[in-house]
Amino acid sequence: MVMGGGGYGIDPYLCDFFLMVDVTSMGPMRTDASTAAKTINQLRTWRVRADRSSAMSDAVASLQRQWERSARHTGDFAEAWDQCVPAQLKDQCRVDTMRGGVARIIVSSSAVAFQLDRTLRSGLLTTLRANCTAAITRIETRIGQVRPGHRGSASASG
User: Fold this and answer.
1) Does residue 75 share a domain with residue 30?
2) Dist. CA 95–CA 121, nearest whole Å
3) Which domain holds residue 20?
4) Which residues pair with 147 in a beta bridge?
């Protein structure tokens, strides 16, 4: 057998040959050739990639499933966060996203980020992993607005 055809052990030119040959005129080799042709045709049906659907509804459904899974994981983590994080830290940080096992937390300052890091290392991360259904591999902190719409303590009046 000639190696070819993408490493499957079937030469694509040989496949075309069996499709073009009239096996009724082969005499004693007729059964072997027809069996080989059937086998090759069967392999073609098994090893050919199915056409992907390019319908917009399939893409929308796929995106919806991904979003629902992401929202479910973020919601599960946020609930565990509310239950496990100490009160003095809870007011100074918030859950941003949870994706691929990485939780992103927005903190109000670098001092809060340091305090959160120490608390996570002293056992909070283990507690969060035990209380959350989503897998938590890492927690990242970023400095930013803790409360949406909050622009600082001073109000701008004109």
Assistant:
1) no
2) 18
3) 12-45
4) none
